[in-house]
């Protein structure tokens, strides 16, 4: 009979347990995606803070509304998907094109080595979501928008959309590994980076995730950076550089929400 | 009630089942022993808790061992990994005394594209290739690095124990 050392407590499980409790606290208090809120609601969060107050004022000249996403590490992907699908509801030709791209993406990912059996599950759900927000719905745009909001607040659908976008992002990093390797700090290979920072849910997104996803889908994203940087101007970045943005996001350290331009 | 987690677990089960059938059919056709590997199925009344078996990989001290495990899923599967635990005693650098397993894909490298087969196959290869640098059992890790004979002796003892369990 073997004897085992008792001092090797199972640390990993304790850490995971603690993480789950924190996540539960966040999920109980914030919806996955909020209603549209006036941009000025941000001011309440930074009351008495001159730098942020000045920057929010500046931002309010360009944007009317903000839509918050749950800060669970998936915020970029969720915000991107919501904002882009919302744009497609009133742009039928772009919608049809995206639908074709999404349909073909599964085969492409399988060719890149993703397991087709499990991929199919996410792809089916992704396509179902796209169908449900078709601009050709006879009941009109407002109805489809309500449907979009409902879908994105249903954890099962909402998270599967995030998973699928993560897989598309991961696939793009692999496809153009030589290019993206330049963005990776430290000794990570692209392969390791994809498995550790892209595919797992709840891992936060960096520029590299944004560039890869935007490039894979062919969508321009403008990110407004609200931080403690100097001056009262809010810096904006367009991804990929020089593209015409269709999705507008606001970044505050560690978190992305959706913006609505005037 | 059909939730995404339950729907996906039914798919995982079908996939494992089909693969096993295929393996057996293949081995009968070739008149050979069925290939040893991994197997798992939901417990009688709960699809969220599975029992599984991993056969010790050939050409390792774990050869011939049949190690039982439990896999516990939450409704967040496959977005979050399940909790996998050996029920059989396993003397291995990355297996805790309580059967918990220290494996990156079950923690920070989990991908929702992994299914039960992929998990079990990864644990099986962990048996062949321990990672003594992140030990869950420090004695096993030390013996693996410094006294391979003694390590193998203690592994073989738990292989024999696995027949009785």
TrEMBL record, chain A:
Site entry: Interacts with free ubiquitin: 211, 225, 227, 251, 256
Molecular function terms from GO: cysteine-type deubiquitinase activity; ubiquitin binding
A single BP term in Gene Ontology: protein K48-linked deubiquitination
Entries under Pfam families matching the protein: Peptidase_C65
Keywords, alphabetical: Hydrolase, Protease, Thiol protease, Ubl conjugation pathway
Catalytic activity: Thiol-dependent hydrolysis of ester, thioester, amide, peptide and isopeptide bonds formed by the C-terminal Gly of ubiquitin (a 76-residue protein attached to proteins as an intracellular targeting signal)
GO cellular component labels: nucleus
Residues covered by the OTU domain: 64-262
UniProt xrefs under Gene3D superfamilies: Peptidase C65 Otubain, subdomain 1, Peptidase C65 Otubain, subdomain 2
InterPro entries, per the entry: OTU_dom, Otubain, Papain-like_cys_pep_sf, Peptidase_C65_otubain, Peptidase_C65_otubain_sub1, Peptidase_C65_otubain_sub2
Entry's EC annotation: 3.4.19.12
List of catalytic residues: 72, 75 (nucleophile), 255
EC class: hydrolase
Family: Belongs to the peptidase C65 family.
Cited PANTHER family: UBIQUITIN THIOESTERASE OTUBAIN-LIKE (PTHR12931:SF15), UBIQUITIN THIOLESTERASE PROTEIN OTUB (PTHR12931)
Protein's name in the database: ubiquitinyl hydrolase 1
TrEMBL record, chain B:
EC number(s) given by UniProt: 2.3.2.23
GO molecular function: ATP binding; ubiquitin conjugating enzyme activity
Ranges that cross the membrane: none
Active site positions: 102 (glycyl thioester intermediate)
GO biological processes: DNA repair
SUPFAM superfamilies xref list: UBC-like (SSF54495)
InterPro entries linked: Ub_conjugating_enzyme (IPR050113), UBC (IPR000608), UBQ-conjugating_AS (IPR023313), UBQ-conjugating_enzyme/RWD (IPR016135)
A Pfam family: UQ_con
Segments forming domain UBC core: 4-164
Keywords: ATP-binding, Nucleotide-binding, Transferase, Ubl conjugation pathway
Top EC class of this enzyme: transferase
Annotated family: Belongs to the ubiquitin-conjugating enzyme family.
UniProt protein name: E2 ubiquitin-conjugating enzyme
Source organism per UniProt: Drosophila rubida
């Amino acid at each position: 009979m073997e004897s085992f050392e008792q001092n090797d407590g199972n640390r990993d499980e304790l850490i995971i347990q603690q993480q789950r409790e924190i996540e539960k606290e966040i999920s109980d208090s914030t919806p996955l995606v909020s209603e549209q809120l006036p941009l000025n609601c941000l001011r309440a969060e930074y009351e008495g803070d001159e730098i942020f107050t000045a920057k929010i004022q500046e931002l309010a000249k360009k944007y009317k509304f903000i839509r918050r996403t749950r800060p669970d590490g998936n915020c970029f992907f969720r915000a991107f998907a919501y904002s882009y699908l919302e744009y497609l509801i009133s742009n039928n030709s772009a919608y049809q094109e995206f639908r074709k791209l999404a349909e073909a993406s599964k085969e492409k990912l399988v060719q890149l080595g993703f397991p087709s059996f499990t991929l199919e599950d996410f792809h089916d759900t992704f396509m179902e979501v796209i169908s449900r927000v078709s601009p050709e719905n006879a009941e009109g745009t407002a109805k489809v928008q309500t449907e979009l909001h409902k879908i994105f607040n249903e954890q099962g659908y909402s998270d599967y959309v995030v998973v699928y976008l993560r897989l598309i992002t991961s696939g793009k990093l692999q496809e153009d590994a030589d290019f993206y390797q330049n963005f990776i700090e430290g000794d990570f290979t692209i392969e390791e980076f994809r498995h550790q920072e892209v595919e797992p849910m709840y891992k936060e997104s960096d520029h590299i995730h944004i560039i890869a996803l935007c490039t894979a889908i062919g969508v321009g994203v403008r990110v407004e950076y609200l931080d403690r940087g100097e001056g009262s101007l809010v810096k904006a970045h367009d991804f990929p550089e020089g593209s015409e943005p269709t999705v507008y996001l606001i970044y505050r350290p560690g978190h992305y929400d959706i913006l609505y331009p005037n | 009630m059909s939730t995404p987690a339950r729907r996906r677990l039914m798919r995982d089960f079908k996939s494992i089942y089909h693969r096993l059938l295929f393996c057996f059919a293949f081995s009968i056709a070739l008149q050979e022993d069925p290939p040893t590997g991994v197997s798992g199925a939901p417990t009688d009344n709960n699809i969220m808790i599975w029992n599984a078996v991993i056969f010790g990989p050939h050409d390792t001290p774990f050869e011939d061992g049949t190690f039982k495990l439990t896999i516990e899923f939450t409704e967040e599967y496959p977005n979050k990994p399940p909790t996998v635990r050996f029920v059989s005693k396993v003397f291995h650098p990355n297996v805790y005394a309580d059967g918990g397993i220290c494996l990156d894909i079950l923690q920070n490298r989990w991908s929702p594209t992994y299914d039960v087969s992929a998990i079990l196959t990864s644990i099986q290869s962990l048996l062949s290739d321990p990672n003594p640098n992140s030990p869950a059992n420090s004695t096993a890790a030390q013996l693996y690095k410094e006294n391979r004979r003694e390590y193998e002796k203690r592994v073989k003892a738990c292989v024999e124990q696995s027949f009785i369990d």
